[in-house]
Amino acid sequence: MSGLRLGVDVGGTFTDLVALGGGGVLTTKVPSTPRDQSEGVMNAIAASGVEAGALAAFAHGMTVATNALLERNGARMALVTTAGFRDVLEIARQNRPSLYDLTQDRPPALVPRKLRFTVRERMGPEGEIEALDDESLEKAVSSVREAGVEAVAVCLLFAFMHPDHEQRVGEALREALPEVHVSLSSEVLPEFREYERFSTTAADAYLAPRLAAYLKNLGGKVEQAGAPRPLIMQSSGGVATIDDAVRDAAAFILSGPAGGVVGAAYVAGLGGYHDLLTFDMGGTSTDVAPVVEGEAQTSTETVIAGVPIKLPMVDVHTVSAGGGSVAWADAGGALRVGPRSAGAEPGPAAYGKGGEEPAVTDANLFLGYLADGTELGGEVTLGRDLAEKALVALGEKVGLDAEETALGIVRVADAEMARALRVISVERGLDPRDFALLAFGGAGGMHACTLAEELGMSTVLVPRAGGVLSALGLAISDVRRDYVRPYLKSLAEVDATNVKRSFGEMERGAAEVLEGPDHTRRADLRYAGQSFELTVEAEGSFDELEERFHVAHEQRYGYRMDDEAVELVNLRLISTVPVDKPELAEPRPEGEPGSGRREANFGGEWIEVPVLDRDRMGEGSGIEGPAIVEFKESTCVVRPGWRGEVDAVGTLVLEKR
């Protein structure tokens, strides 16, 4: 089979692969290799049996950048900024991570104070106020050289409007230190607000060397195997080249989760569902996101590991509740789950790889949702006796037996995930009852019905490729570039010709790096005096633009102020090159799908339920809860009171009776 589109997504526990072509979908799941994620990628390709020479395109989503931020193991880096503003990263904003916790402190800045250097210069809103001092520049370059850093972030005042000084500093650093990565805020994030611009640029410099090393390693292995050079998933929901990923490292922090949202929106749309809450429960964490009218929602207000990243990212909210999240007893004897994960090594106790603490997977196995002896990724076999032993040990600490402990673990994890779903629905002005819950990831289907009930939702969607949906999203993602231009002015005073010219310049720039791109124009708007913006479509007249903002503000915050002046803050352009996307077709069922029965626990009661093999089901196959459906890479638990049917594109559509 030739002309295949390949998507490979690296998760904390498993690496997933999807190959699309010839009207078929090939899927593979193998354990991740945390020490070198590229090994897991190549293992997945080998396990799939796909010939590297048969690939037309290869898209990749990874957690290298995310992990580097979370674990604070990025590059040793320096910061060069305007004299007097050395501590912007430290001062940050007045909001606190936990308002009433006197022991809580902010995460440390990515750049320690001793590695922050300054130059004498000053730009203002109208341009140069004080010329760049050559002596201070030479001193800053010398200090950076002596510090022995791998990367430098250059963030000068008003560089987003007047980048001349910042570009001169960047040129001096690049000429003197060609082996050091240099990130300029005027290139990374040409927007106002010093702290967010400094923070995003610092993250870019902090991540670039690690990302470059990983992608160079992966690119070499892929090239040696004869496959196309990988395209890398961006946080905004499109793919870009390896060179783009190294140049704009901060734009790839949510590389993996973004692929899942894109895949969910596509598969659900084929079945006629366009308003979704996506629910991706993997081995390490759970990612949730809204899809409205078939489009993944993006945000520029993302904070990851305490670091604000003001770049367009799919509006994903992540919690530490995955199949590998470890259950434990706190000092007061209460049952807790996460944030620590057993990961792929040693994994949950049931993996038999040395793990002794129970995880969510152990609880699901003990409760009968997973079968004893289930194989995961071809290399892991679950042992119920090992899970029970770990549950008993934890139960002794909290005064519960194994069954009560398992039920408690699932309830605690469900509560955390329900809270996450409320963040991306209720807190965004969206009523979850108007949405379908699309569950994917290896563990998503086991918890979906419970979470839907908690949020008052009546429809659950479980795609056929739900266990590897992030990889599917990678395989069908468009090539994408995002552009932004600051434009801080009252909407009533904006020159329409000037705005049109600005969009035209951004579009011509996009056409230089992309082949025949499609463009979407957007704008950031706010009421005069507000400190936050909302992004709306920027097509049509300014009257239409203003009304779109009023409507968006009312949806998000519950009110609108028609008499208040509206300000235009930024112009945004999304340029994409669409790729061919396959039509998914589900065959009719052949024979009976039942593969047996087993006891499962629902609300403390053991019930013998039918177990259905998803591979034997087809379009029109129905199901009545309680039941368990075993997919190739995941499991779906259909709770009592739910019923469903497989639709024409292979999605199991469950409805609450």
TrEMBL record:
GO terms for cellular component: cytosol. The keyword Hydrolase applies. Keywords: Hydrolase. It is an enzyme of class 3 (hydrolase). Its EC number is 3.5.2.14. Pfam families: Hydant_A_C, Hydant_A_N, Hydantoinase_A. GO terms for biological process: glutathione metabolic process. It comes from the Bacteria. The keyword Hydrolase applies. Residues 570-649 form the Acetophenone carboxylase-like C-terminal domain. GO terms for molecular function: 5-oxoprolinase (ATP-hydrolyzing) activity; N-methylhydantoinase (ATP-hydrolyzing) activity. Residues 5-176 form the Hydantoinase/oxoprolinase N-terminal domain. Residues 197-482 form the Hydantoinase A/oxoprolinase domain. PANTHER family: 5-OXOPROLINASE RELATED, HYPOTHETICAL 5-OXOPROLINASE (EUROFUNG)-RELATED. This is N-methylhydantoinase A. It comes from uncultured Rubrobacteraceae bacterium.
